[in-house]
Every structure is written in C-alpha cells, then in structure tokens.
Amino acid sequence: MWRFPLVTVVVFAVTAAGAVAQAVVPGLLAALERAPAGLHGEWWRLVTALVVQDGGLFGTVSNLLFLALVGAAAEQVLSRTRWLVQYVGTGLAAELVGYAWQPVGAGNSIAVCGLTGGLAVALWRGADRAPVWTVPVLLVWCGALVATLSPAATVPAIVAAAAGVALSSAAVRRGVAVHRPVALVILAVGAGLSAAVNIHGAALLIGVLLALPTRRR
Known about the structure:
Distance between the termini: 14 Å
Shape: globular
CATH superfamily: Rhomboid-like
Order of helices and strands: HHHHHHHHHH
Mean pLDDT: 95
CATH architecture: Up-down Bundle
C-alpha cells in the first residue's frame, strides 16, 4: 500500500464500536436496525443500521474483516472523499432498497459493496495502485455475498470463490491481466443477486454507478 488507510481505520473503529455496544446493551439492535418504523418517524435507522449487525458473531466478524481488506484496497485507488461517497452513499441508497426488499435488517455489508463497486470500476480502468491482494479478496467477498442467498448456496459459493482465486493467481503468474475479468465478475454477481431480490446485489450495482464519474488515480 502506498498510503495508510486512515478512513478505513476510522470507519472500522466506529463500526466495531457499534457491534460491541449491541452485544452489551440489550435491545440496541432492535432500536437501531432497519425496520418499517424508519419510514414512520424513526429516520435515524437509515444511518444507524450501518453500524449494528444482524448476522450474529460470524456475520459481524466477516463484515468487519472485509471492511478492513476491501476498504484498505479502495483507499489506495480512490480519494478519501470518494471512498466516503462510495461507502456512505451506497449504504444509504441500499438501505432504501432494503425497505422494499428486506424491511428488517442491519449490517455494513451493503456499504462494503459500495467500495467493491468502486474497485470494480477502478480495476476496469487499470488501477495500478491496487494492492496485490485486491483481486483474491474481492473474489472471496463475492463468494460470501452469493452465500447470503440461502444455506444451500454456501458450499457452491465457497467452491466458486476458491476456483476464482486459483485461476486468477495462475493467470497473474503467467502475466495475464485479470483486472477486467474480475470487474465483470463483480458486475455479474451484482446483477444476479439483484435478480434474486438480494439487497447486496443492488448495493454492488449502486456502487458501480456511483464510481463511474470518477477519474483514474
């Protein structure tokens, strides 16, 4: 990495603090998560749903881990202002989609999808500042998102992600560019999940659309 991922660290700390708070304060998740009450006066849920988690311990750890990895990679190829636009802008827009598709829920995974969309556009354009581990992390993250479809999708998603990492690593060793194919994988996952009415698909596509006006760094 060519610079310290300051914004990623700050957002990680805030999100981790929210996860700890909900673990020690009974009823906090119910008070802050996305819920129909958010459309009837409790407007703060649009924001607070991004700092509490509804996926239990595993979901919380996963969301924080990918926030750290995807966020750090995105901060190398996006300006810090653009990073925040991708993360917060996508998160808020996807929360609105969530009211139609999944009225109750919480977690920062949709905001991480915004960074993923930003990285997809950056990879398509070359992204020479992206860390070497960006591609495998994005492929594993896409596998994790596909696994949210149903328990039956978990094993196929893991196998597909592992195969993608192996193939992309082999291609890189042979000097074959993989940035654009990976960007297309992200777009395809976004479209597929959206077709399945999965909020993460909408978040990926929103992230891509938000990033299109940005310039290559």
